[in-house]
Amino acid sequence: MRYLIVSDLHANLEALQAVLARSAGAFDRALCCGDLVGYGADPNPVCDWVRLNCAVVVRGNHDRASTGQDDLEWFNPVARNAAIWTQQDLSPENTAYITGLPRGPVTVEAFQIFHGSPFDEDEYVIGAGEADQAFGYLETPVAFFGHTHVQGGFIWNHSRVETILRPPARSDSRSMRIDPDCAYMINPGSTGQPRDGDPRAAYAIYHTEAKEVTYHRVTYDVASAQRKIRAAGLPPILADRLSAGR
Ligand code: ZN
């Protein structure tokens, strides 16, 4: 089975469309590690695509916040503003869909997906120390997660934690063989709001028979996504940061 794995779409339709154009024909099932909405100006079209096309989806913190399931006091003012805007924009159908999304981890075949970490959906697994702790909670040797908006992730290699490199700026993909003696926490990166210094939309393909994960980056119409964010009256920083990938 070939899985398309996306995370942190954040209502960025242009980025999602670029990912789908590039990955067309390259996957059998699509999965999403959460944060469908929040920040971007197209929550309904992005949610429609996920609802119709993703076989398994876990919720993210912005999904809870944008459907009234969370106390917004935990959010910074920009994220809170975007969550309130999204609550008002989402159709009743999409609000109901997002409200019903499960908390991760969810097991798919022989791997897991979750938003933040296997023991706390809101935990940021940023460095090797956090990953070391998280690996202790994995129930499968391979897992996919998001939340940090940083493509890559971590390998547990005979008690040592190694950081996985994302594709370099001059390349649009990087493949990695899955070693049966290791464990993997794989971050496909953020499709809709990358924060790893590369503004290109991120995703990953997991080919289970070939035991291979390929990280991808694809350019998209950033200017169009930015125009819509500004026109919607969302905080301008949410448009600005897309060009920097920060
Ligand atoms: Zn996110």
State the gist of this model.
By secondary structure, the chain is an alpha/beta fold. It has helices at 13-23, 43-53, 61-65, 77-89, 92-99, 128-135, 222-231, 237-244, and strands at residues 2-6, 29-32, 54-57, 106-108, 111-113, 142-144, 152-157, 160-163, 173-177, 183-187, 201-207, 212-218.
Description:
30% of the residues lie in helices and 23% in strands. The chain is an alpha/beta fold. The strands form two sheets. The protein has a six-stranded mixed beta sheet. The mean pLDDT is 97. The structure holds zinc ion (ZN). Zinc ion (ZN) binds next to loops.
Question: What percent of the residues sit in helical stretches (DSSP H or I)?
Answer: 25-40%
> Judging from the principal axes of the Cα atoms, what is the shape?
globular
User: What is the name of the CATH superfamily?
Assistant: Metallo-dependent phosphatases
**Order of SSEs:** EHEHEHHHEEHEEEEEEEHH
Most strands sheet = 6 strands, mixed
CATH class: Alpha Beta
Number of helices: 8
Just name the CATH architecture: 4-Layer Sandwich
Runs with pLDDT <50, length 5+?
none
β-sheet strand percentage:
15-25%
Structural class: alpha/beta
Q: Can you tell me the number of structural domains?
A: 1
First and last CA, distance: 33 Å
Gyration radius, rounded: 17 Å
Summarize model confidence as the mean pLDDT: 97
Count the strands?
12
In what order do the strands lie side by side in the largest sheet?
3-2-1-11-12-9
By CATH, the topology is Purple Acid Phosphatase, chain A, domain 2
What are the distinct ligands in this entry?
A: zinc ion
